[in-house]
Amino acid sequence: EAGVTQFPSHSVIEKGQTVTLRCDPISGHDNLYWYRRVMGKEIKFLLHFVKESKQDESGMPNNRFLAERTGGTYSTLKVQPAELEDSGVYFCASSQGVGYGYTFGSGTRLTVV
Amino acid sequence: KQEVTQIPAALSVPEGENLVLNCSFTDSAIYNLQWFRQDPGKGLTSLLLIQSSQREQTSGRLNASLDKSSGRSTLYIAASQPGDSATYLCAVLRGAQKLVFGQGTRLTINP
After folding, report:
1. Which among B44, B89, B97 has the least Cβ separation from residue A98?
2. Distance CA B68, CA B75 (A)
3. B52 touching A, CB under 8 A?
4. Of A43, A26, A27, nearest to A35 (Cα)?
5. What is the mean pLDDT of residues B17-41?
6. Is the Cβ–Cβ distance between B46 and A95 less than 8 Å?
């Protein structure tokens, strides 16, 4: 079984540019999550999709972040325009549902300079 | 607001020792608790998942316990090996399917 795949693994962009991160969940997992870890802090929730619908986006920092999940399959997280404080590691996870545990991807390390 | 604390922040022990990592959480209304390991520059690898109705889970040399009433979980690693060196994270799942993470314990096993 393929795991959760994220790309790119690293991205370095200049302040003000746009970056799009992609996540391919485990096939058949309706639940897809985005989390973020910024330097020195714990990993924090960003948002949760159930199939193609946003179930909870209470963790999204501001309206510069836009997440989509096309047809309930892969998801993208776009940051536009990027700011210095957006630097960190962005993790994607998928799950069959409550009680099944989460499977995380390897993360995308975003550096905004 | 759920808070998760992991103690110690870092731990260094010689190979072969048994060790315990601690995790505490402030709100006992959780669905489950999951332990992960993270190797440098890598993603999170799930180690053990304990449902709220369970007291412990075991996998190989790892044993995790859960005491909801006191808001504590421990991860016991037996006969530690250099390959166990990593950051260990605990996370609790609350309503709305949000995982709340601790800051992690950075473990170093010295050969």
Report:
1. B97
2. 15
3. no
4. A43
5. 93
6. no
